[in-house]
Design goal:
Elements: E1 4-7, H1 13-24, E2 28-33, H2 40-45, E3 50-54, H3 60-74, E4 79-82, E5 88-89, H4 97-125, E6 128-133, H5 146-166, E7 171-178, E8 190-191, H6 200-211, H7 222-234, E9 241-244, H8 246-271
Parallel strand pairs: 1-2, 1-4, 2-3, 4-6, 5-8, 6-7, 7-9
Length: 274
Amino acid sequence: MERRWLITGCSSGLGQALAAAAAEAGDYVLATARKPAALAELADRHPDRVTTAALDIRDPGQCEAAVRAAVDRLGGLDVLVNNAGSGLFGTVEEVSDDELRDQLETLVVGPWRLARLALPVMRSQRTGHIVNVSSLAGRTAFPGLAAYVTGKYALEGMSQALAAEAGPLGVRVTVLEPGGFATGYGTALAEAAARIPAYGPGTDPMHAALRGMAGDPSLGRPEDFAQRVLRVVAAEHGPVRIPVGEDAFAYLSAIEEAAREELAAAREFGASGG
């Protein structure tokens, strides 16, 4: 079965690997990025399967144009992958209102908008799949990533609500939670303009770890992520939230155990009248 994909954030990393894998599997892809020139090599490698478009997911007009282009050029839309994202490093006290709004526009409002635009197409087809790329930060907090964590938690909440709403209409929703992958996320990480030295001891190790992700040979390859996504989309059914990578499963297992312990402690605290 040939599928028609709209994938955001395809200029590098996970999005580029996924667009290439979908094309190699015989599907049709509208690959998008803020700077479409970065997609030229991808399109050249798969001229019959990949078409490209400019898309800044913070721009409502470009979002509308991208969905319209997918329908016009591909004949429909079977899979929307909200992959585009960016990180902001800064504590709650350091992040300004404008910086927070920009982060949430990218991580929540843009994916929400694209889902809203794609849903009429998918509902009319009585089939479709919306895949939202989240993070381990959608399940737990990391120091120095307050705005990013907030955005990913919101994305997961939206996705779970959408799964309940759209599932009966034939539209499947999946949230992917990648573990560590060797991408440019850390090197592209923006930083809050205000920096407060008192937070350094608690956040500097996280900052250094993120900056070193791209060259870490122990992390997963984007190509492996892409193959996992193809399997998820090809399956008829599956969980709404799916970790990607063995490290993700290990980490989330620890998080779930910690949550159970916290719940038990809270119950005991309440019973004791604390």
